[in-house]
Amino acid sequence: MHPIVITRVAERQWHAVEDDRVVGRGDTLRRAGRILLSIDSWQGAVFDQLADAMLADLPRPLYTLVDEADLDLTSRWHRAGFTTRRREWEYLVPTDPRATGLGSVLPPEGVTIVPAGAAQEDPLREVYTTIHDEVDATVGWATMPAEVPALPNGTPPLDPSKYAVAVQADRYVGLVRVTGRVTVRPRIGLLAVPSDHRRRGIARALLAHALGSAHRSGVEAASTEVDESNGAAVALFEGVGARRASSNLELVLR
């Protein structure tokens, strides 16, 4: 039996090698201000060695996401010292307006929806920054789904092709971010409105636009993740017929 050798092969990647063969990989990814870890190895001992090496090299806090149904993987991370921080529900959302009830939903008076790809980057960044700061000052940006980007210094330009926006008097007053394979299973990664424009139906109109666009492209369902503590978002998506498909746990090591 050959010894396992763990090597950091790149800034964000570690390999476990046995007899010149890679038997495990560890990676990190930065999302929403968090360093997320992932380890790919079917051998429990290799997983533990990769975890030990990565934890020794990286600053804390560290995070990982696991499918709640994967008890074996969850227990491995718990063995490495991680604890459960929060749960995200993954929803499948129908796109057919007959199922969602959104077919007759229009933006409030004076508000128009600009489709993905047509938004201007500067006002898009302005509303994104406003939303980011409001969330960060209340529940914290770390409660957002991990795939939603934060705004670190030197952040790259926001990609207007992923955002539809609500506009009132030349000001962007809401946005919806759609990613993934839009013609197969689009993912609603962010649906948000600044606090001074909430409770007017803007978010519902943006959701109607995003789902309607997907339906016209022949897509039957979109997906999204919602923190279980976000009652307003849970109510919005379940109110349009979304069903829970799975749940993910965010684990943390402080």
Key terms for this structure?
transferase, Aminopeptidase, 26% helix, elongated, 4-stranded antiparallel β-sheet, Acetyltransferase (GNAT) family protein, single chain, 2 domains, acyltransferase activity, transferring groups other than amino-acyl groups, GNAT_dom, 254 residues, 6 helices, Acyl_CoA_acyltransferase
Q: How is the secondary structure organized here?
A:
Elements: E1 4-10, E2 13-18, E3 21-31, E4 34-40, H1 44-57, E5 62-67, H2 71-79, E6 83-94, H3 97-100, E7 111-114, H4 121-137, E8 163-168, E9 171-179, E10 187-192, H5 202-216, E11 221-227, H6 231-238, E12 243-253
Mean pLDDT: 92
Principal-axis shape equals elongated
Instruction: Work out the helix count.
Output: 6
What is the radius of gyration computed over CA atoms, rounded to a whole number of angstroms? 21 Å
Q: Count structural domains.
A: 2
Q: Give the proportion of residues in helices.
A: 25-40%
Oligomer: single chain
The rounded distance between the terminal residues' Cα atoms is 35 Å
Return the CATH class of the largest domain: Alpha Beta
Output the strand order for the largest sheet.
Answer: 5-12-6-11-10-9-8-7
Low-confidence region ranges? none
CATH architect. name of the largest domain: 3-Layer(aba) Sandwich
- Strand pairing plus helix content: what structural class? alpha+beta
CATH homologous superfamily classification of the largest domain: Gcn5-related N-acetyltransferase (GNAT)
CATH fold name of the largest domain, please? Aminopeptidase
Query: What profile does the largest beta sheet have?
Result: 8 strands, mixed
What's the SSE pattern?
EEEEHEHEHEHEEEHEHE
Total DSSP E strands: 12
Share of β-strand residues:
35-45%
